[in-house]
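pasting for ref
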Amino acid sequence: MANRAKSVRENVLGEFFVDTTCIDCDTCRQLAPTVFGDSGEYSFVKHQPRDAAERREAVRAVLCCPTGSIGGQQKAEREEVRRDFPLPIDGDVYYCGFNSAKSYGGNSYFLQRAGGNWFIDSPKYLDPLAGRIEALGGVARVFLTHRDDVADAGKFAQRFGSERIIHRLELRAQPDAERVLEGFEPQELAPGIVAIPTPGHTAGHCVLLVDDCYLFTGDHLWWQPDEMRLGASRDYCWDSWPQQIESMERLLDFRFEWVLPGHGQRVKLAANRMKDQLSLLVRQMKGSAVPQS
C-alpha cells in the first residue's frame, strides 16, 4: 500500500502519487504514459488523469505495480478495473498485468491458441486473474524465457496442469519444470511456435517466436520510445555481452513484426522496418556506441 508521506518530490499535486518504494520497473509508464513520467531513478505522476480514459489507465497501473508504490484510487474502482485483465494487445495476444516483484516487475503475456493457451513468463498469482484465465480456456503451457521472470509460474501450473518449458541452463529457477530445452538451435514447440535460444543476458535465455509475427523477447530486446529504436543493455547483461551480440545477430534470420519484452516497451513495426532496426542495433552493439537501458 502506497504511503503519501513517502511521496516522491516530482509528483504533481492531486489524487494519484508514487512513493519512494518504486523500483523504476517501467510498468506504470507503459500502461499510463500520459500520467506517469521517469525521473531516471523512479516513476512519478507528471499529470493527474484528465479524463475517464486516462484515469482507467492510471488505475490499471496501480493494479500492476509490483511493489504497490502507487496510491490515490478507491477500492471499488480497483475492483472494476481488475476485470480488464488480461489486457488485449493484438489478435490472440494479451498482456497479463499484475507484474510480480519476484521478476522485478517484468511483463508476462497470455496467448490464446486452438491447441492450448500459453503464458510467456508469469505474472503474480491472484485468484481473480486465475479466474479470468480459466474463463479464457486456462493455460496449457508456460514458456519461461529465463530465470529472472519465473514469478508464480509454479502456482499457475498447479492450478491449470500446465507444462512449464525452460532451458536447462535456467532450470535452477524452476527445477521441477515439465519440459527442458537443450542446446542452442531453434526448436518448434507447437505448430507456428518456435523457441530460439538467445544466450547472453543469462546463459540459457530464450525468446519465443509465434507465427513469424510475435517475438516474446524476455530481457534480450525491447523498444526505446525516446530514441525510437530497438534497445538492449550491457549494464543488465548478467552472463556474456559478446554472446548476447551473437544472439541478437542470429535473430536477423527470422521474420517478426512485434517485439514483446519482459522489461521495456513493446512495439509493432512492418517486418522490413523491424529488420532494419535490428540490423542497426547489432551494429551499435558491435561498435563503441553501446545501447543503454
